[in-house]
Amino acid sequence: MIELYTFPTPNGHKVSIALEELDLPYEVIPINIARGDQLSPEFLAISPNGRIPAIVDLEPADAGPPLPIFESGAILIYLARKTGQLLPNTPRAEAEVMEWVMWQMANFGPMLGQLGHFRRFAPEPIEYAIGRYADEADRLYGILDRQLEGRDWITGDYTIADILTAPWVSFRGIHEIEIERYPNVERWWNAFQERPAVQRGLHAGSDRWAAPPMDAGEKARRFLRGAASGASAAKG
Ligand SMILES: N[C@@H](CCC(=O)N[C@@H](CS)C(=O)NCC(=O)O)C(=O)O
């Protein structure tokens, strides 16, 4: 069983979609980032960067204590290696997938995140910031479009690179991206969102987002165990 600490955002959806694709049993534990749950000391012990998503694998392959992992890229690489799926194991093919995993983690996600912030959430419109991130989003969508030319998925076969990247496209309305300008991205996105596992992953936990904050007993049960295993892993 895997505990998934998450909220319905692009980064959260990456992990619920991967868990569905891999058919791994998991439980959604809502971390309401609008309410500040991500800053509780208990959650910070699992995810020191104070961001969702994070997981705790209650049954790691080494049969050791529960294993906490934060950062969506690290989580998907871990899950792919745990199951032997969605990540090729020949050096050349794995390197290519990793290039696009890192491209997403360092470029596509962060730049679109900033664009969404300045378009929708900044207290006042700042033209320079919106222009800078809109230009960068256009450049990155263009790169993705060229990579998808003649390919069904980012590196040919369906991998974690697709699962890490596509959830950002589902939030294109907030970013004010006209997907028709990137026809290969549009075709790829349509194929992605038609996958049954993607549909399940996008809706995972949808009955739980308004859950009340955890009481002290639940916090102790979930987090102290994760924190203890994280601390021992760090020392080890
Ligand atoms: N690089 C991180 C980014 C995680 C991230 O930014 N998560 C956002 C939601 S999409 C969050 O938790 N925000 C809470 C906050 O800003 O306080 C990952 O991929 O896991």
Describe the structure.
There is one protein chain. This protein is an alpha+beta fold and 236 residues long. Helices cover 57% and strands 8% of the residues. The protein is built from 10 helices and 4 strands, in the order βαβαββαααααααα. It has helices at 10-21, 41-46, 72-83, 91-121, 127-147, 160-169, 172-175, 183-193, 196-203, 216-235, and strands at 2-6, 26-30, 54-57, 67-70. It has a 4-stranded mixed β-sheet. Helix 1 links the parallel strand 1 (2-6) and strand 2. Helix 1 (10-21) packs parallel to helix 3, helix 1 (10-21) packs across helix 9 (196-203) and helix 4 packs parallel to helix 6 (160-169). The relative contact order is 0.17. The protein binds glutathione (GSH). Glutathione is lined by residues 9-11, 33, 38, 51-53, 71-72.
Q: Which term fits the overall shape?
A: globular
The ligands found in this model are: glutathione
What share of residues is helical?
55-70%
Radius of gyration: 18 Å
CATH 2nd-level architecture of the largest domain: 3-Layer(aba) Sandwich
* CATH homologous superfamily label of the largest domain: Glutaredoxin
Low-confidence stretches: 226-236
* Overall number of strands: 4
H-E string = EHEHEEHHHHHHHH
The name of the CATH topology of the largest domain is Glutaredoxin
Number of helices: 10
